[in-house]
Amino acid sequence: MDHYEVAFQELGKPIYVYIYAFDTTMNSVIIQEGEGEQRPVYYISKALQGVEQRYQKIENATLAIITTAIRLRSYFQSHPVSSCHNPLINYLHTDKVLDDLQKARRIKREAAKYILVASQLYKRGFSFPLLWCLGELKTKRAIKEIHEGVHGSHIGGRALDSKIVLTQFYWPTLKKDSLAFIKKCDKCQRYADQHQAPLKQLHSITSP
């Protein structure tokens, strides 16, 4: 396993952890925000060996989370950690619901669509594997990377949200956010297909 410190950390300042799980490797990096940008602080890379290379993607993600939690324990102890107050996640964790009966029924109904794996929320599906539910901080980065990143092709809104799902990401406002992002994309607005019909004089049509 390779691990090294990239930059000095600022004690007491919140940290963000990005975890990537692939077929042959797992990687994680600690990020701190400063001066309007994200700066890497610590990086871990582990090559999967033996039976680990036969893990399913969800098992790779679980291994990555556990490995990161063990290796970076000192970082988590010396920095603020945000806790989740989402009623749905709390219900999946503790099987307890709110006192409001109407909200409790809605949470129980929604909970059937989700599952927790190593404290990470995933959405179930019939025609696709488990989808990783992204938090608010990661959704914009995911849309931008898939739309205009290395493998991006500036596809339209409907195709974009479908591609995000194929990448195994999900969040409740996925379709709405995809359409909104396309409308703000400068290249899409400049070079999108336009109506090319030649201009002609309009003629009124009267009914017989």
From TrEMBL:
Top-level taxon in the UniProt lineage: Eukaryota
Keyword set includes Metal-binding: no
All residue ranges annotated as the Integrase zinc-binding domain in the record: 139-192
GO terms, molecular function: endonuclease activity; hydrolase activity; RNA-directed DNA polymerase activity
Keywords: Endonuclease, Hydrolase, Nuclease, Nucleotidyltransferase, RNA-directed DNA polymerase, Transferase
Reverse transcriptase RNase H-like domain: residues covered: 12-92
Keyword Transferase attributed: yes
Matches recorded under InterPro entries: DNA/RNA_pol_sf (IPR043502), Integrase_H2C2 (IPR041588), RT_RNaseH (IPR041373)
Protein name: Integrase zinc-binding domain-containing protein
Organism from which the protein derives: Mucuna pruriens
